[in-house]
Structure formats: C-alpha cells, structure tokens
C-alpha cells in the first residue's frame, strides 16, 4: 500500500508540475499561460489511451512492475523538456507523462478489489486515492520554492532523479507482492471494446463515467489555472498562490477519506456524489468573486471547499465502479471509465482556457464550471433508481 500510494503521489505530482510552473514557463517559452491547458489535454489524451490498455498490460506485466514503468515514462518526458525546453517538447513531455499516468489507478484497483472487504471498499479506495492530492500538495508547495532557489530547470532535474529512484525501488519489489502475471487472453483492441461495452451496458457504470467526465473538468480546471488566476489576476505572489493551491490539495486528501467513510457507513454513494457536485458548483461561484481585495481567509475557505469536493470525489467513484464491474474485470472496467474521465480533462482545461481568454479573465472560466456541475446533478437525479435498485 505504501509503495502504490507513493507511485500514485509521484505520478500526480509530475503531471501537475507544468501548471504549477505556468507563469514561469509562459515567460520562458514566450506563450500565454492558457497554453498550459493544452499540455494538460495532451497528457490526458495519452492517459486515456494507456488506461484503456491497462487491462491487457496488467495480465502481462503485473501491477507493480507496470506502475514502475509508468514512473519511468514520466521521468523520460520531463527529462526531454529539461534538455530542450520548447512548446514542442512540452507537448512531447505531456505524451510521456500521460502514458505513465493512465495505468497507475487500474493497477492499484486490481490489487485492492481482491484484498478488501466490500463494506470497507469506499474508504480503502479513498485512502489509496489520497496519493493524487498529496501529489498536488507536493507540486504546489515544493516546485515554487525549488524554482526560486535553483531555477526551474534544476528543479525539474531534481524531480527526475526522485522519479528514477522510485522506479528502481519498485522494480526491486518482491514478485509475491502482486498477483501472478498471465498471458493476455485478448488483443488490446478487444480489451478496449469490451471495457467500453460493459460500461455503457450497465446503467450505473454509464452514469458514473459521465459524471466523472464532468467532475474531472472541475478538478483539472482548479489544478491547472488556480495559480495563474491567483498570481495574475488577484495579485498574490507565486509562493503564496502555491500555498493556496496546496490548501485545496490538502482538503482533497481529507475529503477523499471523509467521503469514503460516509459512503461506507452513513450515506449511499449516490447521495455523496450528488452532494459533491453541489459543493463544486458553489465553489466555482466562490472563486468568481475572489479579487485583489478578498481576505486571505476567504480565499483559503473557498479553495479548501473546492479541493475537498473537486478533488475528493475519486475514491467513492472508483469504489463504486469496482463494485459494479463484473468479477475479474475491475482493472479493465476501471481503465475504461477512467478513459471517459480523462476525456473530460482533455476537453475541459483547453475549453476553460479559451473561455477565460475570450472573456478577459479566469474568473469567468471558473464560473463556466456551472455547466458540467449542473449537468452531473441532473444526471444523478434522473438515474437514482439504478443506484438504489442494487448495490448502494
């Protein structure tokens, strides 16, 4: 669990490093900060492809070794950008980082669904998924400080070294820690088609996948544009903006555990997801009203609620996906639903960036998140009988 949690955190951290460094990179590369949204789109498009491939790759390589290869892929992408910094190599880094990011969650899901009691599944998945906001905390707190101390290229070089060390430790882990790898019974193409067919044939999985599309737009908008919004429009320093973003990430850690506990013990998954969608909606409105005169405590409150909801939903969602997946298919079905999740990330940040550019401010971009949040709430309300008719 410690190893997989570490891998999840590092994979999340390296994915978010370019958005955290957006003000510096935009100056260095002489491009608008909104271009970083396109890096996110490239990264998650690659993640979408690799997550769909996860079912087949898991049977061949095994989850821990595959996770280690994912970290190596991310490290290679960052190294290329450090050596030749340009828009082209940033996009190429996004490809390598995305390919590495996609299979990490299906790897851990394949292990947890076989070794966790069903009545503790939401909490267990939520604890494991804290690796994502923990990675966000690391990116938001460490990178601004590192780049001020040693420069952005040296800061990225240090992160690359850490990634390669983690990958080496993972490769040395005992084989007994993971399920025995077997030969793939199906082609990658068949895995793609079968996973997507199962998702859209089972109503709850279909609803979860579409809601994850909407939620991921909110999550990555927060992660991608928060620092740029706070620094460029609100007037905070880069370090203070990083602190505010890290507050949202820390709240996401707490939220993931709290929502998982509530879904296991007090409320249905459906009701928790509906409440989270409402929280994202209110948070987006709150960000819109932040300006240079806003109290720091108000900013902390808004970003804490935003992080707890927009970052905290994943564990409950993934646990429900694992519950509803046919036996032995949790890895491939998780990969399939994550492909829909990542599609939201591919389309969301660039769209929000374009809206922000057209309206003259990121505040309006955050306000546009009312569209996906309201859509997800309507969908959940309309499909409630499918959730309550079987497993909670």
Structure description:
Residues 1-388 form the Major facilitator superfamily (MFS) profile domain. It holds the Pfam family MFS_1. Keywords: Membrane, Transmembrane, Transmembrane helix. InterPro entries: MFS, MFS-Transporter, MFS_dom, MFS_trans_sf. 82% of the residues lie in helices and 0% in strands. The protein has 392 residues and is mainly alpha-helical. It has a single domain (2-173, 187-385), classed as Growth Hormone, Chain: A (Up-down Bundle). The chain is globular and about 50 Å long.
Summed up, what is this model?
By secondary structure, the chain is mainly α.
What are the main properties of this structure?
single chain, 392 residues, mainly alpha, 20 helices, 0% strand, globular, MFS transporter
Q: Quickly count the domains.
A: 1
Helix content: over 70%
Which sheet architecture does the biggest sheet show? Answer: none
CATH topology: Growth Hormone, Chain: A
CATH class: Mainly Alpha
Q: What's the rounded overall pLDDT mean?
A: 79
* Discrete helix count: 20
Rg to the nearest angstrom?
Answer: 20 Å
Unreliable stretches (pLDDT < 50, length at least 5) are none
Topology pattern, helix = H, strand = E: HHHHHHHHHHHHHHHHHHHH
Q: Provide the CATH superfamily.
A: MFS general substrate transporter like domains
- Shape descriptor reads globular
Q: What amount of the residues lies in strands?
A: under 5%
Q: What distance separates the N and C termini?
A: 26 Å
> Which architecture name does CATH use?
Up-down Bundle
Number of strands: 0
**Backbone structural class:** mainly alpha
Transmembrane segments: 36-59, 152-173, 207-227, 239-259, 271-290, 296-319, 331-355, 361-381
Domain Major facilitator superfamily (MFS) profile: 1-388
Pfam family, one: MFS_1
Protein name: MFS transporter
């Amino acid at each position: 669990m410690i190893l997989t949690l570490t891998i999840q955190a590092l994979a999340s951290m390296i994915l978010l490093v370019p958005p955290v460094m957006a003000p510096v990179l935009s100056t260095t590369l002489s491009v608008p900060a909104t271009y970083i949204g396109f890096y996110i789109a490239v990264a998650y498009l690659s993640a979408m492809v690799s997550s769909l491939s996860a079912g087949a790759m898991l049977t061949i390589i095994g989850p821990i070794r595959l996770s280690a290869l994912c970290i190596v892929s991310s490290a290679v992408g960052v190294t290329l950008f450090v050596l030749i910094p340009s828009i082209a190599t940033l996009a190429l880094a996004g490809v390598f980082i995305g390919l590495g990011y996609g299979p990490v969650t299906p790897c851990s899901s394949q292990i947890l669904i076989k070794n966790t009691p069903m009545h503790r599944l939401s909490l267990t998945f939520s604890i494991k998924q804290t690796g994502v906001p923990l990675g966000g905390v690391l990116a938001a707190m460490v990178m601004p400080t590192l780049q001020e101390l040693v420069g952005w290229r040296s800061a990225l070089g240090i992160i690359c070294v850490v990634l390669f060390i983690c990958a080496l430790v993972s490769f040395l882990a005992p084989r007994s820690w993971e399920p025995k790898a077997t030969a793939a019974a199906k082609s990658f193409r068949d895995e793609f088609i079968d996973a997507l067919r199962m998702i859209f044939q089972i109503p709850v999985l279909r609803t979860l996948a579409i809601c994850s599309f909407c939620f991921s737009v909110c999550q990555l908008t927060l992660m991608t544009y928060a620092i740029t919004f706070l620094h460029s429009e609100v007037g905070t320093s880069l370090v203070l903006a990083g602190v505010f973003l890290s507050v949202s990430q820390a709240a996401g850690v707490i939220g993931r555990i709290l929502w998982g506990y509530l879904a296991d013990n007090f409320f249905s998954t459906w009701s928790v997801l509906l409440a989270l969608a409402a929280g994202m909606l209110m948070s987006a409105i709150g960000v819109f009203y932040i300006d240079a005169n806003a109290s720091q405590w108000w900013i902390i409150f808004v970003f804490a609620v935003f992080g707890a909801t927009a970052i905290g939903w994943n564990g409950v969602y993934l646990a429900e996906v694992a519950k509803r997946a046919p036996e032995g298919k949790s890895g491939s079905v998780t990969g399939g639903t994550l492909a829909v999740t990542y599609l939201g990330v591919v389309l969301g940040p660039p769209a929000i960036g374009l809206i922000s550019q057209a309206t003259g401010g990121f505040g309006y971009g955050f306000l546009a998140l009312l569209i996906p949040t309201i859509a997800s709430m309507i969908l959940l309300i309309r499909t409630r009988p499918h959730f309550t008719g079987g497993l909670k």
